[in-house]
Amino acid sequence: MKRLLIIAFLIIGWQSFSQSEIQDIRHVKPDYEAIKKEIKLPASKYFYAKLMKKFNQGAYLNLEEKRHLYYGAIFQDNYIKDYSSDLLNDIHTITIKQELSQEDLDKLLDYALQILAENPFDLEAMNYATYVYRQKGISIQNELMGIKFSVVLDAIFSSGDGITEKNALHVIHNRDKAFIPKLMGYKAQSTDFDTDYIILEPNKKGIKGFWYYSYK
Question: Minimal CA–CA distance to 157: which of 52, 30, 34, 42?
Fold first, then answer.
């Protein structure tokens, strides 16, 4: 079931990914101190409350706005690097089933939205929410969640490709280190994601693992 959820997002969840925009920036590492300064200035176009409002509305964000929004989360009072929730266990209990009932879908959506209320950039919760919206034919919310998902991924993949330590993917939550290999069709050998290098199972592309960087 989990595999199906990932594939669902590969098809639709990253639909607004701006490939040309990412290529133009050439994997630039986030300037955390500059971001920290800009998001606190009410007159700045990167003022965090403005960016979050646009994010919640599904409004257009250029790449720098996406980066300030995602990496700026680190400097918010409610930021938790090692975010976890008991709801994740409830979600996994549902997603291991071979088939989901309407009640299962309702619970899955409810749990995912509760997680996103606490951690709005949680990729796994976005994935599950989008899956349910698609199954139920709720196109407006599906599109909105897909836009949000793309904002996070655009920011992450603008920071690097993860193939070398120099080009590490900058992420703000350790759980992202587990989700990104799944998104790209790989399986991680590691179960400890409090590390900068995640080893992958053997794969056709011969990629040994992904390098990550988390702001200290």
Answer: 30
Closest residue by Cα to residue 66 from 43, 91, 48, 89: 48
Task: For residue 4, give every residue at least 6 positions away whose Cβ sits within 8 Å of its Cβ, in sequence order, or none.
Answer: 131
Tokens of 53: 């409002």
How big is the chain by its Cα radius of gyration, in Å? 17
Return the structure tokens found at 185.
Answer: 């069709």
144 occurs within a structural domain: yes
Q: Is 9 within the bounds of a domain?
A: yes
The total of structural domains in the chain comes to 1
3-state DSSP assignment of residue 19 = helix
Please state whether 110 falls in left (phi above 0), alpha (psi between -120 and 50) or beta: alpha
Q: Which amino acid is it at 87?
A: L
Is 90 exceeded by the pLDDT of residue 107? Answer: yes
- For the segment 206-215, the average pLDDT, to the nearest whole number, is 93
